[in-house]
Amino acid sequence: MFDKILIANRGEIACRVAATARRMGIQTVAVYSDADAQAKHVMACDQAVHLGGSAPKDSYLRWEKIIEAALATGAQAVHPGYGFLSENEAFAQACSKAGLAFIGPPASAIQAMGLKSESKRLMEKAGVRLVPGYHGADQNPELLQREADRIGYPVLIKASAGGGGKGMRIVEKSADFAQALASCQREATNSFGDDAVLVEKYVQRPRHIEIQVFGDAHGQCVYLMERDCSVQRRHQKVMEEAPAPGLSAALRAQMGQAAVAAARAVNYVGAGTVEFIVEQKENAKTGQLEMNFFFMEMNTRLQVEHPVTEAITGLDLVEWQLRVASGEKLPLQQEQIKLHGHAIEARICAENPDHNFLPATGHLQVYRKPAHSAFERGTLRFDDGVRQGDVISPFYDSMIAKVIVHGETRAQALALLDQALAQTQVVGVHNNVQFLRHVLHSESFVKANLDTALIPREAAHVFKQEPVGLNVAAAAWVAHSLQQEQAKQGADPFSRADGWQSHAQTLRRFPLEFAGESHIAWLQYGHAGRMTLSWGNAAGPHAISSADHFEFTPAAQGLWVTWQGQRVASQVVQQIGKPGTPADVAHVFTAQGATRIRGVSPLAFDANEKQDDKAGLTAPMPGKVVSMAVKVGDKVKAGQSLAVMEAMKMEHSIVAPHDGMVAEVLYAPGDQIAEGAPLLKLA
Ligand code: ADP
Ligand code: ADP
Ligand code: MG
What we know:
Layout: E1 4-7, H1 11-23, E2 27-33, H2 40-43, E3 47-52, H3 63-73, E4 77-79, H4 89-97, E5 101-102, H5 107-114, H6 116-125, E6 133-134, H7 141-151, E7 155-159, E8 169-171, H8 177-192, E9 197-201, E10 207-215, E11 221-233, E12 236-242, H9 249-265, E13 270-282, E14 289-299, H10 306-313, H11 317-325, E15 342-349, E16 351-352, E17 358-359, E18 362-363, E19 366-368, E20 380-384, E21 391-392, E22 399-407, H12 410-422, E23 425-427, H13 433-441, H14 443-446, H15 454-457, H16 459-462, H17 470-489, E24 506-514, E25 517-525, E26 531-537, E27 540-541, E28 549-554, E29 559-563, E30 566-574, E31 583-590, E32 593-600, E33 623-628, E34 635-636, E35 641-647, E36 650-655, E37 660-665, E38 672-673, E39 680-682
Parallel strand pairs: 1-2, 1-4, 2-3, 4-5
Antiparallel strand pairs: 6-9, 7-8, 7-9, 10-11, 10-13, 11-12, 12-15, 13-14, 15-22, 16-17, 18-21, 19-23, 20-22, 24-25, 24-32, 25-26, 26-27, 26-28, 28-29, 29-30, 30-31, 31-32, 33-35, 33-38, 34-37, 35-36, 37-39
Helix pairs in contact: 4-5, 12-13
This protein binds adenosine-5'-diphosphate (2 copies) and magnesium ion.
C-alpha cells in the first residue's frame, strides 16, 4: 500500500479521498489555487502545494505542475477525483511515465470510453445493447438528417466528446433537425473543441440507471449494484438513489453482467460506472411497465453519487480504489456483494431553481447542518468541501454539499432526507435546499414514478413554492426583532426604546415585505405584558381579536412563536445585505421549510429600491464571457441574443431588453466578469 498520495482535485471529493487515506494511515498532499488557499480540502491534508491562479486552467488542470508536486513531496500515487483531469488519458499516461500510480483505470480504457460515438462502436462489438442510433464517423449534415429520419422522432443529438449535458438537443420533427444540429455543433465546438455528434432515438419515459463496476489488475471484475439517477435538471443529476425502485433481481443481474462485459471489453481496472438509459413501456396486454436498458456511456472515474452505493453495500469505494491501484486483488467476489436497505443522495447546489437553475455565488454567511457523519457511512451522511464563512466562487462547480441518507426502506430514507434538509440552513448564497424538499414531496417522487421528466412534470409543485406562509414568517420576524432588542437593552425597563410604557397601552408598527408585497403588522402591548399582533395599514391596525394573542419563548434553537392560534418553532437569520440597501432580508427557518421576509426599517420605509432599467444588459452572475454576437453600431431587436456568458458549467444568454443600437461593448470573449457589471450599452 502507498505511504503518501497526492489528491489532484478540490472541494468535497478531495476531502472525501483524504478522509479514507487518513483512516488507512496514508499521508496526503493537497494542491490548491489562489482562490482555495484557505480551503477545507487544503486543511484536510497533511501537506499542500500551490498550483497557480484561480481559473482551472491555471491550477487544477496544470498537469505538469501536479506531477512535479507529487514527485517533490514524495507521493507515490495520484488520485484525480472527478471532473478536472480524472478522464484525461494524457494525464494518466504522464503519471505512469513519471513513476506515479494513477488511481484510476489504464489510459487506454479512458481513451476507449472518452468519445461517446467510439465507445458505442466498441460496445456494439462486445454485444452490449445500444439505443438505436447513428454513431458513425461521417458527419455530413444530409447524412445525419437521413439517419435521424430513419431512426424516427423524437431523436437526441449529442456531442460525441460531450459531458455535463452540454450540446444535447432533443428534436421532435424532421423539419427542426438542421437547426438543432447546427446549435449542438456550435456548443460542442465551444465546450470541447470538437463538433462531432451522434444521433440516437429519444427513449420513452427514460430512466437513468447506472451500474457501479470495479476491476482489478488480476482480471477480476464485479458490479456493486445500481443507482437510479433519473431525477435531473438540464440533463444533470439532482438526486440519486440505490437500489433503483422497481428493478427486479433478474434485471439487476442482467444489467450488472452487461456492465461487467462493457468494462471487460476495455480491460478496465479500478472504479467505473456504466450508464444505461432505461425505456419504460407499457405492455398492451398486461398493463405492466416493461423496462429495456441500453448502454449510454461509461464514466471512467469515481462518480459524485458513489456514497449511495457505499451505503447499501457497506463498502468504502475509495479504499477499494487505493487497494486496486496499489496492485491488490478486489476484496470481494461477486457473490459476496449484498445490498442492504435504501439510500438517497441529494445534491445541494449554489443555484436558483426558480430562475432556470442559474448558478449563484456568494459568501456562506450561515451554514448549519444536522448531526451527521462525513465521508463515511451513516444514517445521515453529509459530505462537503466548505465551511461557514467560505465563499462560493465563480471558478468551480456549484455543488455545495451532498446529503446522503440510509434507511431500511425507501419510505424511511425519504423521511430521513426530508428531516435532514429541514435542518440544513444556508444563508448568503442562493441554493436549492427548499427545491429539493419540494421534489422529495412531489407525488412522482413519493410513488417512485421516476423518469428524467420528473422535474418538468412536477413543475407546479416544485417551483416558486412558498412553504411558509406570511403569518408564520411575520410572527417569527417580529418575535426575533423584539428578542434582539431585548438582548441589546438588557433588563432595565427605563432604558427601553421600543415604546414600552408602564401605564398605557402602546402600538408599534412593523412594515415588512413578503413575496413581493408590502404589509404592516401592528404590535400592541396590553396589560401585564400581554401582546397582540394584527394586520393593518399605515393608519393603524384593523380590528383586533383574541386570536391575535402573540407570544414567544426560547426554543432549543430560535424561538417558539405563537400567533393566530399556531405555535411554531422558528429560527430567523438576518442576512448581511449589500451596503446602502434600505431593507434587510431575514431568512425564516421552520420545520415546514424556509422563507425570506424583509423587515423594512420605518425610517427607510419610503426609500424603495429602484429596479435597474439596464438590468437586462448586466451579468446575472459572475462568470466568463463566451461570445459576443454584436459590435458597436449594430441594430438589435428586443429579445435578440447579444452575448453568451458562462459560469459554473452553465451558459446564459444576455438578450436585448428593447430594440436599439449597440452603443458600447465593454467586454470581449474570454474576459472574466463580475455579477451586475454591464456587458454592453444600448442606445
Ligand atoms: P457524475 O459523476 O454523477 O457523472 P457529474 O457529471 O455532475 O456527475 O460530476 C462530475 C462533474 O463534477 C465534473 O464534470 C465537474 O464539472 C464537477 N466537479 C469537478 N470537480 C469537482 C469538485 N471537486 N467538487 C464538485 N464538483 C466537481
Ligand atoms: P453526459 O456525458 O452529459 O452525462 P449522457 O449521454 O450520459 O451525457 O446523457 C445525459 C442524460 O441525458 C442522461 O442521464 C439522460 O437523462 C439523458 N439521455 C441521454 N440519452 C438519452 C436518450 N437516448 N433518450 C432519452 N434521454 C437520454
Ligand atoms: Mg452521463
